[in-house]
Amino acid sequence: MTKSEFRYAHHPKDVKHYTTQELREHFLIPTLFEEDTIKLVYTMYDRYIVGGAFPLNKPLVLETIDELKADYFLERRELGIVNVGGKGKVTVDGTVYELNKKEALYVGKGSKEVIFETADGEQPYFYINSAPAHHAYPTKKVGKEDAEVIELGDQKTANRRTLNKLIVNSIVPTCQLQMGLTELHEGNVWNTMPSHTHTRRMEAYFYFDLAAGQTVSHFMGQPDETRHIFMQGHQAVISPEWSIHSGCGTSNYSFIWGMAGENLDYGDMDAVATDELK
């Protein structure tokens, strides 16, 4: 079964007037994993799709949705998948790829059949991002050993973290989709601080590995007028091009960042000094 919903884009002047509930309705994706279901959210920010596949009892086939007006899901799109649960399998046009936790798979434009399923009796959670594509690049698995790893932050400022670039152009060619996984070290709670914006690209964050009873406050908005959304594990948030995207948790956690837009330059950021935030 595939379920989908649609989200509009927003002017930053309008967002300044949103209540807490309105912010959550427009930007938070509270439930991504539903038993034996693929859930998809189509947003008008760069026509990005955020979703989750949870094949608990049976394989799940990625079906096209009405918003695409396409014969099959990847007719004009590319796809990024990161497994955040137990071992699972993704079959792309007959080729099987096994994904352990925190391993990724890039699926190129033109792939007609994508199937998600469990492996060895384990319980996978497949986190999905997708963007429009103009060229067909080969499907490629990105294992832990393939990731481009960067150590960032400092224990003194509670933001020591390990950044794993997974689906980036230094590892796998893509049209515009990029994805990676950041792990905060124990005792560290801040991500993407100092913060930044990049009007050339939108972004989506997915938080996981957050202990029960803990929360992450995700910060968004223009740097001079920020807002926050409290989030739990296995929830995602849409970040507009004009918005910062940062967070602080009550404990350490991991998160997946995915983006699409005008370029593939990971370092293309408009930095915001921490003491300039309002």
3D structure, described in words:
The protein is mostly beta strands. It has one domain (2-276): Jelly Rolls, CATH 2.60.120.10. The chain contains 2 helices and 24 strands. The protein has a 7-stranded mixed β-sheet, with no helix packed on it. The protein has a 7-stranded antiparallel β-sheet with strand order 2-21-18-23-15-14-13. The chain has a 4-stranded antiparallel β-sheet with strand order 5-10-7-8, with no helix packed on it. It is globular, with a radius of gyration of 18 Å. 44% of the residues are buried. The mean pLDDT is 97. Pathway: Glycan metabolism; pectin degradation; 2-dehydro-3-deoxy-D-gluconate from pectin: step 4/5. It catalyses: 5-dehydro-4-deoxy-D-glucuronate = 3-deoxy-D-glycero-2,5-hexodiulosonate.
> Which regions are unreliable across 5 or more consecutive residues at pLDDT < 50?
none
Q: What sort of overall outline do the alpha carbons produce when their principal axes are compared? A: globular
Radius of gyration: 18 Å
How would you write the strand order of the largest sheet?
Answer: 1-3-4-11-6-9-12
CATH architecture: Sandwich
- Helix content class: under 10%
The fourth-level CATH homologous superfamily is Jelly Rolls
Helix-strand pattern? EHHEEEEEEEEEEEEEEEEEEEEEEE
Amino- and carboxy-terminal Cα gap: 43 Å
Largest sheet: 7 strands, mixed
**Could you say how many structural domains there are in total?**
1
Q: Any idea of the CATH topology? A: Jelly Rolls
Q: Give the helix tally.
A: 2
Oligomer: single chain
Question: Strand pairing plus helix content: what structural class?
Answer: mainly beta
- Mean pLDDT across residues: 97
Percentage of residues in DSSP E strands? 35-45%
**Number of E-type strands:** 24
